[in-house]
Design brief:
Elements lengths: L1 E8 L1 H17 L3 E3 L5 E2 L10 E12 L2 E10 L2 E12 L6 H5 L3 H5 L12 E11 L2 E12 L3
Antiparallel strand pairs: 1-3, 1-7, 2-6, 3-6, 4-5, 5-6, 7-8
Length: about 150
């Protein structure tokens, strides 16, 4: 079981992020969505952390995974967070899809429908990986907002 502190987008932004996931997976063959959609950052330590900045950056590819970067200010310190959107589906990735892979060009064209991640929930989340996926649960939460 793994405990971590993450940010969960508000329901309206969550819908927009799911739409972005679908568009990326439709446009770039061989990728599947990742759940839960949450922002992870090593500098998040507790649900009581004070977040005063959550500026949405760009979509990027890193080690077979597609992320959305978010510039944060946590307890007065600058930090960089990321929301994992999609990952390569290696079981169903065809040889043709691997050879025609041009995710970087496609990702640079993706429009993010909002500039700030706010309001949000800061949550303590327990997760456990199983053969068929990940089981996760929220054990503590607090709503936050960037002004």
């Amino acid at each position: 079981m793994k405990d971590e502190i993450v940010l969960l987008p508000n329901p309206n932004q969550l819908i927009l992020l799911k739409d972005l996931q679908k568009e990326i997976c439709r446009t770039i063959s061989g990728f599947v969505p990742v759940y839960p959609i949450c922002l992870k950052c090593g500098e998040l330590c507790a649900v009581t952390d004070k977040i005063t900045k959550a500026d949405v950056g760009k979509v990027f590819l890193d080690k077979g995974r597609i992320f959305l970067s978010v510039g944060l200010e946590i307890n007065g310190n600058a930090a960089e967070g990321r929301i994992e959107l999609c990952e390569i589906d290696e079981e169903n990735l065809t040889k043709e899809a691997q050879e025609s892979f041009s995710a970087e060009a496609i990702l640079s064209q993706e429009e993010i429908p909002f500039k700030k991640l706010s309001p949000f929930r800061i949550v303590e989340m327990n997760s456990e990986e199983y053969e068929n996926g990940v089981h996760w649960e929220i054990t503590a939460e607090k709503w936050g907002k960037v002004k």
